[in-house]
## 1
Amino acid sequence: MVLTVIALELLFVLLIVCLLCRAPYGVLGQQPMGSARRTEWRQAQERAELLLQEVLAEDEYRQLNRRGYLEVASPSRSRRTYRVPRHQGQVKVFEDGVPVMALCVQPVESIPDGDVVLMHKLMIEGNEDEYLRIANRFEPTLYGFIAIRPRGRAWPN
């Protein structure tokens, strides 16, 4: 009996490792990629990284790689800073160094992480009010962030 449980657990672990090895970076649950699509995705990631290096200042790019996030100063609120993660995740908003909310804005289709970082930076700097309008908001709690009810809409039942 004990050997059966151990064998099933080992099989489960091997299945997860197999799935993780087959999935494109950061994406599970999508269609399996053939080698040509994997090559295209890798090339898209490389192009996005080059564009990221071109657009960001040297110190911004260094910060992104060292800390795992890019700090974008609010163009309209002097004490507000947005922390855009290097890889998929919520953008954390700080005022005077204190977290005030987290935001979620995602593209409709999968795009490379470098392009997502630039999307956030350009949206914040270009039209911060529109960025805040379309973002899903989460407020800080002792245990992380929880969703805030969208303005003008009721939660679905």
## 2
Amino acid sequence: MSEAVSQGKVEIKELATISASAIERFLNEGEGLLNEGKLVQACEKIYKAAEDAVKILVKKHAPDIYRDAESRGRWTISLLDKGVQSLERELGEDVERGWDAAWVLHVEGFHEERMNEKSVKWRLKYVKRLVELINHLSF
């Protein structure tokens, strides 16, 4: 694992390894951890699924933003947000709702450890809708 990944910064070259099946795996692992009562770990897996889904969708639907991430050599939260805004215009509210839910899980559930099971489950449905959008892609 590269140093950038271990520090939470995903280098753009690693995007090539992101696949729909990997995203589904993160989502399923997150849901499994949630069912086991491991909320902190569940929140981070669910967030990772959403983040990777946004990156794949941006690559297909907002290539200018993707190229910006490539030129920087990494994704930033501002690029992800810009991508979500662009995707929402094209794909609808499920993008923003899913991203917003994932961000709350990431911050409040993973970093701050302040979420309960009911709140995580409620947000999971929005992340699932976001992830479902990648199933309609063709490259």
